[in-house]
Protein: Recombination-associated protein RdgC
Amino acid sequence: MLFKNATFFLFSPTLEWSHFDEQLQDCELKPVQGLELVSRGFVSPYGEDSEVLKMEQGPVLAVHSAQQERLLPGAVVNEALQKKLREIEKADGRRPGSKKRAQIKSDLILEMLPKAFIKSARTTAILDTAKGWIAVDTASRKQAENVVSEIRRAMSSFPALPLNAEQSPRQILTSWLMGGDMPEGLVLGLEAELQDPAEQGATIKVARMDLASEELRQHIEAGFQVVRLALIYNDRVGLTFGDDLVVRKIKLLEAATENLDTGDADDARAERDALLALMHGELAELFRVLAAEFRFTPVQ
Structure:
């Protein structure tokens, strides 16, 4: 339940959630069958032995969106196809035409699919139904949108939209690196990425470096802008925030975890509930600060 990244979306806090249990049950993950390439749905955040498909703490919900996908690399298919074509050419004395080759390839895929390896993956999402935001544990916009789409499929309607910023993220991040005023509790970390705004401009990445260095200041005075910046919030959370409004490299620091109460050490459910409470609390506070600074609005 501890997030590594967070891609946020906004939705109306007036949405109805009273039937969410039943809606999730209708969209529970089913094993990929027969000739299916992929199967998507929800699995229990409490493990395989649980039938509960969501975690709930007041207005806070958490779900695991999962998928099973058959792995059938194109190189493997093409290798089998070439072998088949050589056999036909040897038997018939000529190579099949393009239409026949396409049919042979299609037949091979149908033959190989049931034997293909299956890859499983899951992604966690936390929803604050009172505040109207959802955080998905991924830095990939496409993957985050896939999770939102699965929730939308379950609910029939879930008008969640990506973030937009009324204030220029690059200008604010650049100002912070140059010593400008930062929201209370936020301080600079030790990583940054700068980019020349010119078309195909250069990119500079620094790590484990004092971001107040004269070298970085000179790059910014030359026109470079900050596109990602490492930050620490209240000595509790380390992170990197980008101009795409995605939070990356989330790390809860000792000040955040020292009082973590996971209940009975043998109670996995209590431990996961405690981690959800902790993760939501830190994400909610971080989201509040960033939303006020960058003036988040939903993309229209």
